[in-house]
Amino acid sequence: MRLPHGEPLSQLDVDAQQLQRAGRLVAIMGDTSSGKSTLLCSLYDRYLRGAFADRSFVASTTLGAFEKLAHLSRAVSGARTPDTKRTYVSDGLQYYHLALVGQENRARRVDLFLSDRAGETYRSAMDHPDAFVALPELSVARVVTLLIDGARLAQPEELHEVLGTAGRMVRAMLDSCALNDTQHLHLVVTKRDEVERSENRSAIEAQVKSLVHRLRTNFGPRLATIQYFAISARDPKGEHEPADGCDALLSAWIDAAEPRVRAVEQNEGPATEFDRLATIERARA
């Protein structure tokens, strides 16, 4: 019996595990320091405390990777304030695995494979939109989760740039055909605590709401769904519970509908001149 190595999974590792047990792939993307690793860390830490979002933790093939990710958020690290290990461009594409079961129906197990990649990669892809097609996590994910940095939204001089970048990133992924109408897009404002403490909270929330409305209007038919969430994965001031708002996001990942099977009409007649010629020859025989 081969035991899990505990490190982050590659795309090939995920594909191999999918052959044994079907899972749900979630691409987590966003600009630099938008909170991708912190979101992963907060979910893991939350399940260490017990059930969360009406589900319980049952297994993970990346426990060692989760522990390394969470180390700087713990007192034993010696850090003055909780932090999360950064993901670098050189790390490439990595996946973290969580297997969960419902508290009411423990027979319903779901295996989540959550991607992690440096934000610099996604930002540089915007200059060459075709580069999005080369990112495998986007093409295989049922759900694509785009994180928007709430701390930057709380800075008046950065608000419009951050929202503009998010909008352009969505357009670039769709125009390059990196995403399609079978996939779900989740727009997630991270560090909600920073937004709520801002003097410009109302204006920020109005601008975010406007962006979500524009994306739904312009791109809604090109995606399965577009949903919006706001989370506070780890509030340094302790005014929010750990993983605040992440329960709704997690449930949306799990409940995202699979695409309907499309019926393909059979073409009874010959499709090409060669087929027609073959049909005539058979009729003569």
Automatic annotation (TrEMBL):
A UniProt-annotated Pfam family? DO-GTPase2
InterPro entries to which the protein is assigned, alphabetical: DO-GTPase2, P-loop_NTPase
- Tree of life domain: Bacteria
Chain ranges of the Double-GTPase domain: 24-254
> Which SUPFAM superfamilies does this UniProt record tie to the protein?
P-loop containing nucleoside triphosphate hydrolases
Q: What is this protein called?
A: Double-GTPase 2 domain-containing protein
Q: Name the species this protein comes from.
A: Rhodobium orientis
